[in-house]
Automatic annotation (TrEMBL), chain A:
Keywords: DNA replication, Nucleus. It comes from Lasiosphaeris hirsuta. CDD domains: GINS_A_psf1, GINS_B_Psf1. PANTHER family: DNA REPLICATION COMPLEX GINS PROTEIN PSF1, PARTNER OF SLD5. Residues 165-213 form the DNA replication complex GINS protein PSF1 C-terminal domain. This is DNA replication complex GINS protein PSF1. Its main location: nucleus. The keyword Nucleus applies. Component of the GINS complex. It is found in: Nucleus. Belongs to the GINS1/PSF1 family.
From TrEMBL, chain B:
The keyword Nucleotide-binding does not apply. Residues 82-194 form the GINS subunit domain. SUPFAM superfamilies: GINS helical bundle-like (SSF158573), PriA/YqbF domain (SSF160059). Residues 140-160 are annotated as: Disordered. Belongs to the GINS3/PSF3 family. Component of the GINS complex. It comes from Lasiosphaeris hirsuta. One of its GO terms (biological process) is mitotic DNA replication initiation. This is DNA replication complex GINS protein PSF3.
Length: 214, 200
């Protein structure tokens, strides 16, 4: 039998799964909406229960109503906690992804099941982020860029692994257009191979355009 | 246990048996009878988040029988019942506690906050200590990092370890699983570091 708080619990189970997954699963728009609606319904119930008392409700005189009110109140509080925990779990994940070099386009194009998004394939409605989350990622990305901008000689989001070689072989997995390097422009077309400076292509490797060889 | 802690929230969803001590006209739906009165003495399994507050709330009842009575009285959930406790006393390693509750220890500590169960604490402490040793053992083996064999099949599921350990590991609750993962990752990281050192 469905009970108040059951749907909120479902949301938290989604959050639990999100913690383990490498990518961010689609935002549960419908579930979030239903839980919020449940809170609104409960609130209305409370209001109508209290209405005849004209603001002078005495719990001791009417324990039955007091109990119903308490149950409603607790259910709302529970739903609130579930909603907050769900969104916070996702937000934390998004922050990690932004630090790892994803931007809004990568993330919103990302489908459940695929660890790496296909940029440009975002045809609306398929985003795994809610509009608010997209906004959050954009602004968090701006903040991070501003923070990183203070140090021009250190890349805060660069790899922590010390590079063994300055130059590496890479294979192009997806067309990535032309990039500018110290040694001139390289046109990255699919299936071609290059010997490039690691620092120039690190981000493209992280985004899944290039594959490191050897 | 943070407000946002997902495991803590899921623990609070565990149901515990409650007995209502009042007639409540509007709560029949809890007993699967929407629109009916929930009668005094009705036994309903309520999630911890609800049961806890209903059990400790002061009803302020004014009737002679209602003085200091809470809305519900609760019992220990079956997961912490006598049968399970006796079995744990006999051999803590033989019980898949996950089948009792995925958040077994978390549920138990919560219940001990609510009611005075000194024996429960003793049994659980012994259970955890015994099982933790076993978990550490499996975690080392699972990494394939033992001194005898090289690291075979390290990647992949922590739990598909194979052999006799599989049954035991499947029965771990969430807390124990975390412990297992930490022990496993720790052992592996230690081994990796040792191997790295030799190269220089």
């Amino acid at each position: 039998m469905p009970m108040y708080g059951d749907l909120g619990n479902k949301l938290v189970q989604h959050a639990k799964r999100t913690q383990i997954l490498p990518h961010l699963p689609p935002y549960q728009t419908e579930l979030v909406r239903t839980v919020t609606r449940e809170v609104r319904d409960l609130h209305r119930d409370v209001d109508s229960l209290l209405e005849p008392f004209q603001g002078s409700f005495d719990p001791a005189a009417d324990p039955a109503s007091a109990c119903t009110l308490l149950v409603n109140h607790l259910s709302m509080r529970r739903n609130k906690r579930c909603l907050l925990a769900y969104h916070r779990t996702r937000t934390e994940k998004l922050e990690v992804l932004v630090w790892n070099g994803s931007d809004v386009l990568d993330l919103s194009a990302q489908q459940a099941g695929g660890a790496n998004g296909v940029p440009g394939a975002n045809d609306g409605g398929t985003s795994s982020l809610s509009p608010q989350e997209e906004d959050y990622v954009r602004q968090y990305g701006d903040l991070l860029a501003a923070y990183k901008g203070q140090w021009t000689d250190v890349d805060l989001t660069g790899s922590l692994e010390p590079a063994r070689d300055l130059f590496i072989d890479v294979r192009v997995l997806k067309d990535a257009g032309e990039i500018q390097t110290e040694y001139g422009a390289i046109n990255l077309t699919k299936n071609s191979q290059f010997y490039v400076r690691q620092g120039d292509v690190e981000r493209l490797i992280a985004q899944g355009y290039l594959q490191k060889l050897g | 246990m943070s407000y946002y802690d997902v495991d803590s929230i899921l623990t609070d969803a565990e149901k515990i048996p409650c007995t209502f001590q009042f007639d409540i006209p509007d709560l029949g739906y809890l007993e699967n009878n929407p629109g009916q009165t929930l009668k005094t003495g009705a036994r309903v399994g309520l999630p911890l988040w609800l049961a806890e507050m209903l059990a400790i709330a002061n009803t302020g009842g004014i009737g002679p029988d209602d003085q200091g009575k809470s809305f519900v009285a609760f019992d220990l959930p079956p997961a912490l019942g006598n049968d399970v406790m006796q079995a744990l006393k006999a051999d803590p390693r033989a019980i898949p506690i996950r089948d009792q509750s995925a958040h077994f220890y978390s549920l138990a500590t919560h219940m001990m906050d609510l009611s005075d169960e000194p024996e429960l604490g003793t049994v659980l402490r012994k259970t955890f200590v015994t099982r933790a040793g076993e978990i550490a053992l499996h975690a080392r083996k699972a990494g394939g990092g033992g001194s005898s064999k090289g690291g075979a099949s390290e990647e992949g599921s922590n739990l598909g370890v194979g052999g006799a350990g599989e049954e035991f590991l499947r029965g771990l609750d969430e807390w124990e699983r975390k412990l297992f993962r930490k022990a496993h990752d720790g052992a592996r990281a230690g081994k990796e570091w040792m191997e790295g050192v030799k190269k220089f």
